Automatic annotation (TrEMBL):
Protein name per Swiss-Prot or TrEMBL: (S)-3-amino-2-methylpropionate transaminase
CDD domains: OAT_like
NCBIfam families (alphabetical): PRK08117.1
Top-level taxon in the UniProt lineage: Bacteria
Keyword presence, Nucleotide-binding: no
Similarity field: Belongs to the class-III pyridoxal-phosphate-dependent aminotransferase family.
Recorded catalytic activity of this chain's protein: (S)-3-amino-2-methylpropanoate + 2-oxoglutarate = 2-methyl-3-oxopropanoate + L-glutamate; 4-aminobutanoate + 2-oxoglutarate = succinate semialdehyde + L-glutamate
Record-linked InterPro entries: Aminotrans_3 (IPR005814), Aminotrans_3_PPA_site (IPR049704), Class-III_PLP-dep_AT (IPR050103), PyrdxlP-dep_Trfase (IPR015424), PyrdxlP-dep_Trfase_major (IPR015421), PyrdxlP-dep_Trfase_small (IPR015422)
Gene3D superfamilies referenced in this protein's UniProt entry, alphabetically: Aspartate Aminotransferase, domain 1, Type I PLP-dependent aspartate aminotransferase-like (Major domain)
GO molecular function, one term: identical protein binding
Pathway entry: Amino-acid degradation; 4-aminobutanoate degradation
PANTHER family listed in its UniProt record: ACETYLORNITHINE AMINOTRANSFERASE, MITOCHONDRIAL, AMINOTRANSFERASE CLASS III
Length: 438
């Protein structure tokens, strides 16, 4: 077909569902490599999205590509259980070595939403309790079980009426009154929120688990204090509840450790992992201890495509690359460098509000410079100009006010400089357009 497929792009709205085809920015590309996309227009674009935190070891990493090719030469499909194969067994063993605590048993699926569905089903089956508690602003997927615990945007739930969960506020350090200690404030608020929940809406003995993103993802890249997550763990233990971590976006080095659980020194009972696990191949896992998983008997959950042998081969290669190229260390080092550079840019531009980061998971708030209110229109103008300049970012936040900067973990300081220069120029152009003089 070559590169002359503009007629297909023109007909996209007739062939692809709008919910699939209308995301931003719909950049037509012909190739990807490392930290770059190559467009139909002949331009090279620096990618600060990693396929939404998925291609953690860079696009088409040679070792991953080779593993996919070799895997395809041997097996194309499972299904696991009907047959068994080396790549899935090897992956389970290797993941057990890097998972936190005693999380050493895996149910492999295809997507983050599937991993969440599995986590919810496991928790309910083991405890024989009907409800899950999650956090306002969390995003856990759009299938009905995952949607029941998702509240990052109300439009995701419109007309669907998902049930079976209760929500409490996520850590909001920015709401801390002047003069108070932010860490103690969010811990105290968490205790009060759970007290109200259990006093007025649901009793603890009806709750199977508490489900939380250790860093709020689609909801705005909110990084909680370590003490807040540790208090979540403490409250679960106090009331006899399981703790589920949604590490779909934070896993596989994104926060500077293998998992955010290790960054925050909190071990959950169940974890959902996906995205970076196989660098873009469809793969995920619901993870728990062997002791817990044994209570989930044959037939209570199953999959046809989960744990695909080629995807498992890719995942094994991802683990190799993260270790061999010291990508956890690079994430901490380059992530801190990027955060510092963004603070310097923030000082120059009144349209930037807060900058939040952990590792290479960075959120940049775009605001109205007069009112300080979230500025979704301005955000998209900045994103569009940055893309014209040659760098791709993504968006997030409840009011679409957060620019997500999530480059591959292989990114260099030179590439950070290159991308942030183009971002800085986009901010300057937008401020000139609206008549702001800093």
């Amino acid at each position: 077909m070559g590169n002359d497929w503009s007629h297909l792009v023109d007909n996209m709205s007739n062939r692809l569902a709008p919910s699939m085809a209308k995301d931003h920015p719909n950049l037509p590309v012909v190739k990807e490599e490392g930290c770059y996309y190559y467009g139909v227009d002949g331009k090279k674009y620096l990618d600060f999205t990693s396929g939404i935190a998925t291609t953690n070891v860079g696009h088409r990493h040679p070792k991953v590509v080779e593993a996919i090719k070799q895997g395809a030469d041997e097996l194309g499909h499972g299904p696991s259980g009907v047959i068994i194969y080396e790549s899935i067994l090897k992956l389970a063993d290797r993941l057990a070595e890097v998972m936190p605590g005693n999380l050493d048993c895996f149910f492999f699926g295809n997507s983050g939403a599937e991993a969440i569905e599995g986590a919810i089903k496991l928790a309910k089956h083991v405890t024989q309790r009907p409800y899950i508690v999650s956090f306002i602003g969390g995003f856990h997927g759009r299938s009905m079980g995952a949607l029941s615990v998702t509240s990052s945007k109300s439009k995701y739930r419109k007309f669907l009426q998902p049930s079976g969960s209760y929500q409490v506020p996520y850590a909001q350090v920015d709401d801390c009154p002047a003069g108070a200690d932010p860490e103690q404030y969010v811990v105290d608020q968490l205790e009060k929120d759970f007290e109200r929940l259990f006093a007025h809406q649901v009793t603890p003995d009806e709750v199977a688990a508490v489900l939380v993103e250790p860093v709020l993802g689609e909801g705005g890249y909110i990084v909680p204090p370590k003490a807040w997550l540790q208090k979540v763990r403490e409250l679960c233990d106090q009331h006899g509840l399981l703790l589920i971590f949604d590490e779909v976006q934070t896993g596989f080095g994104r926060t500077g450790e293998w998992f955010a659980s290790q960054t925050f020194d909190v071990t959950p009972d169940i974890m959902a992992i996906a995205k970076g696990i196989a660098n873009g191949m469809p793969l995920s896992a619901t993870v728990a201890s062997n002791e817990l998983m044994k209570q989930w008997p044959l037939g209570s959950h199953a999959t046809t495509f989960g744990g695909n042998p080629i995807a498992c081969s890719a995942a094994n290669a991802v683990l190799d690359v993260i270790e061999e190229e010291n990508l956890l260390e690079n994430t901490r080092d380059v992530g801190a460098y990027a955060a510092q550079k963004l603070q310097e840019i923030k000082a120059k531009h009144s349209v930037i509000g807060r900058v939040r980061s952990v590792g290479l998971m960075i959120g940049i708030e775009i605001i109205d410079p007069q009112s300080g209110a979230p500025n979704s229109d301005g955000l998209f103008k900045v994103l569009d100009t940055a893309l014209e300049n040659g760098v791709l970012f993504y968006f997030g936040g409840n009011q679409t006010e957060i620019i997500r900067m999530i480059p591959p973990l292989t990114v260099t300081k030179e590439q950070i400089d290159e991308g942030l220069r183009m971002f800085d120029e986009a901010l300057t152009a937008y401020e000139k357009e609206i008549g702001v003089h800093n």
